[in-house]
User: Which sequence fits this backbone?
């Protein structure tokens, strides 16, 4: 179980989610309240794998503003930025679907693997990882990280699965065992209620959502 980490009182309110690409060779700006990563270990091969990855990325783009837009009205320290690792930038496209397609075509799977190693996730598919510190450099060593794996939802409910995580990961209180239990229970109840997962999987919610300590880079 991660050691308690209390956020400053000024950071206890709900964060505004935003998205940005994380271009290869560049580091995350050290100014955001939370850092979330959309992680895909391997390049999708089948039509189902490609469609699932595109749905996840597109939904993140749809329910969040770009960092450039968000920073016009909210201080950077109040943002939970969903980073999408890419080999190059800037992102190309006018609609969320067009941008998501470009991101997947230019996705940096090697960088994603490095972050996935740090959070102890060895499975395939797509997952989210949220931390109070950047995870692609050494600064995040020892930080508690919230990990959600996106391999168990029914396809029809994938958008709701993404929406709920964006909401929960952007509403931190304190990153400790009490918050962990609250997040796990809320996620289990929500996912079982709307039918994303069956009761058996819901009872073992740690397969879906868990807290870990970031390993050294």
Assistant:
């Amino acid at each position: 179980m991660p050691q308690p980490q209390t956020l400053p009182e000024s950071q206890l309110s709900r964060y505004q989610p935003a998205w940005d690409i994380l271009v290869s060779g560049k580091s995350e700006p050290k100014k955001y309240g939370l850092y979330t990563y959309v992680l895909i270990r391997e390049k999708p091969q089948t039509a189902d794998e490609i469609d699932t990855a595109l749905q996840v990325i597109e939904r993140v783009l749809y329910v969040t503003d770009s960092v450039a837009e968000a920073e016009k009205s909210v201080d950077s320290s109040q943002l939970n930025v969903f980073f999408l690792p890419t080999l190059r930038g800037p992102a190309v496209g006018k609609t969320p679907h067009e941008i998501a397609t470009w991101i997947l075509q230019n996705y940096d799977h090697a960088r994603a693997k490095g972050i996935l190693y740090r959070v102890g996730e060895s499975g395939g598919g797509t997952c989210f990882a949220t931390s109070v510190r950047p995870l692609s450099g050494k600064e995040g060593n020892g930080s508690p990280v919230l990990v959600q794996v996106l391999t168990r939802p029914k396809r029809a409910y994938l958008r709701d699965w993404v929406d709920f995580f964006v909401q929960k990961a952007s509403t931190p209180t304190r990153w400790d065992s009490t918050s962990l239990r609250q997040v796990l229970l809320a996620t289990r109840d929500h996912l079982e209620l709307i039918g994303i997962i069956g009761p058996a999987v819901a009872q073992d919610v740690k397969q879906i959502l868990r807290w870990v300590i970031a390993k050294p880079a």
